[in-house]
Specification:
about 40% helix, about 725 residues, single chain, six-stranded parallel beta sheet, Rossmann fold, ATP-binding, 27 helices, RNA helicase activity, disordered C terminus, mitochondrion
Length: about 725
């Protein structure tokens, strides 16, 4: 803003210095005046102009009314830095405009008599034409402004033009030329872009950020793997076909190898089998490393969860299990990373045939040799015509499959009322409890002959199931956007679960599949007879190194907003890859945003494998981060004060669920201890206490029907108390 005083002194804001220096050099009007430079107001200055048209609660904060959309989150997350904005007018006051006698004239450059005034109607028409012009929209897209950002910058830019008393001279001249027809409307765009860059600083370094987030050829990220001539052998087939057995035989008999599985249970099973076969093997998961050698020497063979795959060691043989999970919306990136980056002469893939075409296309990009082997199921699997319909028709070897815990508790109670002892398995149970429940069910001498489980039995456990009974077919699922949807199970999921019925060399070699409800029976048959959907794309995920490079360009922004920007700018080969959902990671990053941590540490913490819906675990996650920031070791003494140790046997389902969350807090501690051992030093002690907790949870699960009944009784008691209280208050 230009302010001429009686002492012939001009005060010029620094962002307009260039324009007014040119003006002083050529204008006689300003001869005899001197000038001084005034810095641009900061965020706390009352002269800073609000950039939104919607009502706000804080005068300097950009807000968005739309959540959970990628393009919208950029606008919500990126608040203007202390940059030199052209916006210099006081906050908009509609009353002051209404009381202005010269409302029809925009009073610009009043001091410069030689510059033509702009009429308000002409300016409004010009701004509206600018917004609608296709060339402007194309220019905006080319400079990183999607339609949503373009709209919001336009709103702010329009306000600036209408409400400013003074405009930069060169900009005013351009506007006059456009109105008179001497210039094209696109000549306004450089000023619009400057405004946009001041609102969203990442636009100023767009080209560099695009290069960092260019994910179009991820095979090139692993030059050591590309230097090897690798052979990819794909073992495809249904459950109980022997495909994994053949791959593991090659793994066990090799000089050195690595097994990469989707679950801790599967990695543990391979760890025990390999050592039992006489080949030393280590176990590596996110929470622990266990040695096959009694003296603690590293073995040549490793069984690990897929996220822990070591890409720096050269192996003779690698096995990647359940390769179809390369399409998983949350975890698919780990399978992509292992497939593209493993340094192994032979890589054996095990999984569904629906992944074959994608693997073949990916191998073209890596120039690896490809071999395909298909397997058939070893035993019979019959889909029954009739439904079970009543719990009185349950037989030994039956397994009810439910898709929520409430159904688990209900079915367990109904079965126990009829005298059945029930084994229970669901996802949030500790691995030890799952194994003990599976052993009870498999043991021919145990009285437990019936199982109730979620789809957690689909992989990771060997079970002697005669008949799989789908209690329902509706399953909550997450899509690629991280949104929960409730639909019928997919063909792939139904086949995976149904395939657990019958097992080669078990008490029930042939299996049967049916539903509990009569109406679900034809629906299930329709689902399993559909063609399995071909898997077309593999998951990708931003790495810590890429986010650190973003931080160099955008040092003032949160990890969550950096991730949003990365996703927004990333370029993928959409025929082969998709970006995995990172909402859980952003959620964790926001929890600890106020805790002072380096970007690398913050990234690692935000990758922690915890369920954001578990409030107690999220609270402990925040406490861990705060202690880390204080650089104080988190000992078991500190931990015991926050988890109500020693533990008590659960009396209700609520107690059981709480203990499951405490178990996850121990898992989180162990996960962090493998990455920050000095801050989380009591790894062995925590493991021993966790084993004790596992046994307590198992005892609770064995009495799960009683716990559910006790929970219902407490709820009924609460309802009675509430009703009595209401009646008393009425009387």
């Amino acid at each position: 803003m230009l302010n001429i005083t009686k002492k012939k002194l001009l005060t010029i804001n620094s962002c307009y210095l260039d324009s007014y220096q040119r003006l002083f050099s050529c204008s006689k009007l300003l001869s005899g005046y001197s000038y001084k430079i005034k810095s641009t107001p900061k965020l706390t200055d009352n002269k800073r102009y609000e950039t939104l048209s919607t009502p706000v609660h804080h005068p300097y904060q950009i807000r968005s009314n739309i959540n959970n959309k990628l393009t919208n989150t950029l606008y919500r997350q990126f608040r203007p830095n202390d940059t030199k904005l052209m916006i210099l007018k006081d906050e908009f006051d509609p009353l002051s405009l209404q009381n202005n006698n010269n409302n029809n004239i925009i009073n610009v450059s009043n001091e410069l008599k030689s510059v033509k005034r702009l009429e308000k109607n002409d300016l409004l028409r010009l701004i509206n034409d600018f917004y609608r012009h296709d060339d402007i929209k194309k220019l905006a897209t080319d400079h990183g402004l999607d339609l949503y950002l373009f709209k919001n910058v336009y709103v702010s830019f329009r306000k600036f033009l209408i409400q400013s008393t003074i405009l930069p001279v060169d900009f005013q001249t351009v506007l006059n030329d456009i109105i008179s027809g001497a210039s094209h409307i696109t000549d306004m765009f450089p000023y619009f872009l400057q405004h946009a860059q001041q609102m969203f600083p990442h636009l100023t370094c767009m080209e560099d950020l695009k290069k960092i987030s260019d994910l179009r050829n991820p095979a090139n990220w692993y030059p050591d793997a590309r230097a090897l001539q690798r052979k990819i052998i794909f073992h495809a087939g249904p459950t109980n076909s022997g495909k994994t057995y053949h791959a593991l035989q090659r793994f066990i008999n090799s000089e050195c190898g690595i097994y990469c599985g989707p679950l801790k249970l599967l990695a543990s099973e391979v760890f025990y089998k390999t050592n039992a076969a006489g080949t030393k093997c280590d176990l590596v998961t996110g929470e622990e490393r266990r040695f096959g050698d009694s003296e603690g020497k590293s073995a040549n063979h490793i069984a690990c969860t897929v996220e822990m795959t070591n890409l720096n060691t050269v192996y003779d043989v690698a096995v990647i299990d359940e390769i179809q999970m390369i399409r998983d919306p949350q975890r698919g990136w780990a399978w992509t990373r292992a497939l593209l980056g493993l340094q192994a002469k032979e890589i054996h893939l095990c999984g569904e045939i629906s992944t074959r075409e994608l693997i073949e296309e990916l191998m073209i990009t890596t120039d690896d040799e490809f071999e395909f082997r298909e397997y058939k199921r070893l035993t019979k699997l019959n889909y029954l015509d009739g439904a079970v319909e009543t719990f009185d028709n349950v037989k030994p070897g039956d397994c009810f499959v439910c898709f929520n815990k409430n159904d688990i508790f209900h079915v367990s109670r109904e079965l126990e009322r009829r005298g059945h002892e029930v084994a229970v398995i669901y996802g949030s149970l500790p691995p030890g409890t799952k194994l003990l429940q599976a052993q009870r069910f498999n043991d021919p001498n145990d009285l437990c002959k019936v199982m109730v489980a979620t789809d957690a039995i689909g992989m990771g456990l060997n079970l002697s199931i005669k008949r799989v009974i789908f209690y329902s077919l509706a399953k909550p699922q997450l899509n690629e956007q991280g949104e929960k949807e409730k639909n019928n199970v997919t063909t792939s999921q139904a086949l995976q679960i149904a395939g657990r019925a019958g097992r080669f060399a078990s008490a029930f070699p042939d299996g049967e599949v049916t539903t509990f409800r009569h109406d679900d029976s034809p629906v299930l048959k329709d689902i399993i007879h559909r063609q399995v959907e071909t898997i077309k794309r593999a998951g990708l995920h931003p790495t810590a190194e890429q986010i650190e490079m973003f931080t160099y360009y955008l040092p003032k922004h949160s990890l969550s907003s950096l991730l949003d920007t990365f996703i927004q700018l990333s370029q993928l080969d959409n025929n082969l890859y998709f970006m995995c959902n990172i909402e859980n990671m952003k959620f964790l990053a926001d929890i600890i945003e106020h805790v002072p941590l380096s970007i690398r540490v913050r990234y690692i913490f935000s990758c922690a494998p915890i369920n954001k819906n578990m409030n107690f675990v999220c609270t402990m996650f925040l406490k861990y981060a705060r202690q880390f920031n204080l650089n104080e070791p988190i000992t078991f003494d500190w931990l015991s004060k926050h988890i109500d140790w020693p533990f008590k046997t659960p009396n209700t389902i609520i107690d059981l669920v709480h203990l499951e969350q405490v178990f996850d807090c121990f898992d989180l501690y162990l996960w962090l201890s493998t990455r920050f051992s000095e801050i989380f030093p009591d790894k062995e002690l925590v493991q021993s206490i966790q084993a004790e907790l596992d046994r307590i949870i198992h005892s609770g699960v064995q009495n799960i029907a009683k716990l559910a009944q006790q929970t219902d009784h407490l709820e009924d008691t609460k309802d009675t108390v509430v009703k009595s209280s209401n009646l008393s208050s009425v009387s």
